[in-house]
Amino acid sequence: MTDSVVTRFAPSPTGFLHIGGARTALFNWLYAKKRGGKMLLRIEDTDRERSTEPAIAAILDGLKWLELDWDDDVIYQFSRAARHREVAEQLLACGKAYRCYATAEELAAMREKARAEGRTRLYDGMWRDRDPGEAPGGMKPTIRLKAPQTGETVIEDQVQGRVVWQNENLDDLVLLRGDGNPTYMLAVVVDDHDMGVTHVIRGDDHLINAARQKQIYDALGWDIPNMSHIPLIHGPDGSKLSKRHGALGVDAYRAMGYLPAALRNYLVRLGWSHGDQEIFSTQEMIDAFDLPAIGRSAARFDFAKLENLNGHYIRHAEDGALVAQFESVLDYVPGGAELKAKLNDTTRAQLLRAMPSLKERAKTLIELISGADFIFADRPLQIEPKASALLTPDTRALIGQLRTALEAVTDWRAETTESAMRNFAEQNNLKLGAVAQPLRVALTGRTTSPGIFDVLAVLGREECLARLGDQAAT
């Protein structure tokens, strides 16, 4: 393949970058990367009422977080309106389009009549061949495409196969509104052509748009890009994806503690498969990805699967990289600012030391943060109710004895503290568990934590003795 492949991701900035959009961006990115081509980014901001700056920022931020880089400058569709108008005028001049003076009332009556008769073609072409001299005074016309009325419009789709529409069922679509603003249909065709887009990869909710856009391409004598319409993502029960199922913004997945690499890996397997392989490095994805391998039926979103995959990525991540991910997510989670204020050279080093045992127990960065809570906890510790119930007078007395035994350890490591505790248990005819749980409660305020000797090593001698002193019977 040559480097002439150009894909594009073209979201509308009317909300966040949702999970379906993220997958579309990923598929475009992978296809371009595999073929040494380009992926362009176009913000389709022609809906001025609903397009917002925060939504544009959220889309750019979401793509950056997912590490899906685009080529060249971002293109804003609205800024190209003059070019879109020029093309509409060009079609008008060569007889491929016409001015339509139908009133809102006439259009409504036409639609009603067509629906009553079970027709999909809603506009009856009343101004298609009429003399503009008959136009009512002072009315601003729309410009409509003079679409073919017989024959077929055909798309050879890489995912859907050959898709055929009967032209008699398709309207003369509006290219330019009465206020002079271009429609989405026209803008998309002109932008894709001018940007040199060779492959359009988008959701199959755009399939009917492909028929209308093909008619515009044909009228202009332009080559149509290669088309691929990918199935939408559904919930686990097969219904349309809702917020309950995971139809959230990419920023929400970040805040839930998912790693970008895990989310990319999960999204690539939604609708595309490569044998039985589930785990893909980015390079493996690029090497293996192709459009015909995308299924035609809707993919089902499964949070449990995403969580398990994320757990795999966390377990296999480098400890230093996880500390950086831990830090970066603090800006997006409740209580994160408070925790961020406690990050310093000491707590970072403790976090790094704790990471091998923390990451074995966590499926998300949120669980990782929760597991690391003991590092950042203020003295005296807040004891969880379940742990508090274990702090009986006898247990407090035992904690005092354990403190004394640990005070004798000068070379403070997991191995030396474990040896001291085993000796203590043996001398006092206790099982190791009877020693470990009081230690855990006194050092972490919880009944569960990483391995207790890892906790001792991470916190260090001084902090451990101080925390044990806080809970010991006085």
UniProtKB/TrEMBL annotation:
Residues 5-307 form the Glutamyl/glutaminyl-tRNA synthetase class Ib catalytic domain. The lineage of its organism: Bacteria, Pseudomonadati, Pseudomonadota, Alphaproteobacteria, Hyphomicrobiales. It is found in: Cytoplasm. HAMAP family: Glu_tRNA_synth_type1. Belongs to the class-I aminoacyl-tRNA synthetase family. Glutamate--tRNA ligase type 1 subfamily. ATP binds at residue 243. Catalyzes the attachment of glutamate to tRNA(Glu) in a two-step reaction: glutamate is first activated by ATP to form Glu-AMP and then transferred to the acceptor end of tRNA(Glu). One of its GO terms (molecular function) is glutamate-tRNA ligase activity. Its main location: cytoplasm. Gene3D superfamilies: 1.10.10.350, HUPs. This is Glutamate--tRNA ligase.
